[in-house]
Amino acid sequence: MVAVTRLDKQLMYLNPDHIIFIEETPDTVITLFNGNRYIVVDRAAAIISRIVAFRAKISRRAAGRSAKKYLGRVRSGQFHHSAVTMPDESFSDHQSKQNHIPLHGRYY
Question: Which pTM value belongs to this model?
Answer without folding.
Answer: 0.57
